[in-house]
């Protein structure tokens, strides 16, 4: 199942969502976002721990029943 991290869970007010096939892909995208949009030159270990803890299974899109 795909994974996602909502930056707002860590940084209120930020609408960025990192999605990927697994936790590592999500963390790579989140790290790039943190550097680019939050000015973090590196990700402190406590922030990385919190981010990994906030990763969730991505909800499947709702399907419409077309009859």
How are the elements arranged and paired?
Layout: E1 3-6, E2 17-20, H1 23-38, H2 45-54, E3 56-57
Description of the structure:
- With 67 residues, the protein is an alpha+beta fold.
- It has one domain.
- Helices cover 39% and strands 15% of the residues.
- The chain contains 2 helices and 3 strands; from the N terminus they run ββααβ.
- Strands 2-1-3 form a 3-stranded antiparallel sheet, covered by helices on one side.
- 10% of the residues are buried.
- The model has no long low-confidence stretch (mean pLDDT 91).
What would the principal axes of the Cα set say about the shape?
A: elongated
Order of helices and strands: EEHHE
How many β strands by DSSP?
3
| Number of H/I helices | 2
Radius of gyration: 14 Å
Give the quaternary arrangement of the chains.
single chain
Largest sheet: 3 strands, antiparallel
Protein structure class: alpha+beta
User: How many domain units?
Assistant: 1
Percent of residues in helices: 25-40%
Distance between the amino and carboxyl termini: 28 Å
Q: Estimate what percentage of residues fall within beta strands.
A: 5-15%
The gist of it:
By secondary structure, the chain is an alpha+beta fold. It contains two helices and three strands; from the N terminus they run ββααβ.
Entry keywords:
alpha+beta; 3-stranded antiparallel β-sheet; single chain; 39% helix; 3 strands; 67 residues
